[in-house]
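Can't paste images in this forum, so I'm doing it all in text. The chain is below; anyone willing to post the predicted structure tokens underneath?
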Amino acid sequence: MTFLGAFAIFFAAIFTNNILLTNYLGMCSFISVSREIKTSVGLGAAVTFVMALTSAINWAVYHYLLVPHLVYLRFIVFIVVIAAFVQIVEMIIERVSDVLYAALGIFLPLITVNCAILGVSLFMVIRDYTFIQSFAFGLGSGLGWMLAIIAMAGIRQKINKSPIPKGLEGAGITLIIAGIMAMAFVGFSGMIAIG
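Text version of the structure:
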């Protein structure tokens, strides 16, 4: 049951409870970086890596260090763990791909304050997930965020060649597309029943 529950959480985090499309967390970088597929893949991979590992580490830190007497420090501690991982990811990307590093620009260090990543850590505490469920939720949420930004980048590249009314160009059409994508993803609800 634990594996099946973790799989259901993982699947739901990608599709039906997509952190970006159902909670609208992480919209700033989503709107700004989703102009090209290549940069969207790079940022999505970085967010997935950080989200999966920080959810697991934050679970352990919360349950083994904070729960006895320091629960009120969870926001600060979660952000410190996230910031440390973002620094690692930033150093790796800078050494591996100068082009991707330059394309991501300011949004790479801003992963630290990406509310989707902090939201995953807070949701796992609120929902009282186990360690495996927390990791599955973090990984699934990262993959869901990545799927959404890549899909948006693909759509935005296609509509660049289409006539769009002046009032809808930029963020306007992006938010309309995000709303339509959210409705499509919620259409997956009820596909897995655990009983």
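The chain has a mean pLDDT of 88. The first helix runs from residue 2 to 14.
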